[in-house]
Amino acid sequence: MIDPLTEVISLLRPAEVHAKAISGAGAWGVRYAAYGQPSFCVVTDGACRLAVEGAAPLRLEAGDFVFLPETPAFVLSGFEPVEPQPIDPLQAAARTEALHHGPRDVEPDVRLLGGYFVFDSPDTALLVTFLPKLVHVRNTPRLSMLVRLVREETQQSLPGRDLILQRLVEVLLIEALRAAPGEDAPAGLLRGLADPRLAASIREMHRDPARAWTVELLAKAAALSRSAYFQRFTSAMGLPPMEYLLAWRMALAKDLLSRQRIAMEQVAERVGYASASTFSTAFTRHVGRAPRVFARELRRARS
Question: Which domains does the chain possess?
């Protein structure tokens, strides 16, 4: 069975994971400016408070996992009142040593593993819009096992430590997105997939993106009337069905153009266009650059 969530994560292609140990003790608090890149946090021991801009504050406890696809400004702190210390996320990301906040002679109240992903995708900005702005998963059995492995790995200095941590955090990301409560999620892919009727049509789009889909055909796949399907899809996904299909086709096209020297006719055929010219027109309108220019710029940047 086609899994749209797996396909989105596969297109994001996590190329690197940068992580460091973080601890806090006593009265402490840090305020991070908006970063704009995908970041994560795993609580391995203790508890702390996370206040992400635009969201209700969270109490984070051991076993919790947080993923921020487009990291906005946030405050991370203990539970005592304190004026948060401002931190530049770019400077913090460049540091490789562990971070400790609060008095150094006090036993930490919380230990975390925090960091960020580098995605090797030409369309990261679009793909992360399919995901919630904040994913918080608490102490599910599988996540607890992964967090325990992360904690054990960070406490040792064995050969291959960085590679193992990278793989573990990648699996944590996938597991967290699978475990996140889709029904209560904001509009986006997780909420759409939580609706069995909509999920059937989304899987069909991903299974055969080149098909000449119409709202009527997608509604039939969802066993809904055209009007009911359109309203339900738009409410759950945050955009109409044909706009989602176009965005997914363009994401696939960008991926093909970035990874392969492939004839434009083949790209057009794989994403549902009858000719290279009609595909080029649609791509240029959507992306702002012709597909050949887009591919040339990517190759130049990577070389």
Answer: 4-180 (2.60.120.10), 189-302 (1.10.10.60)
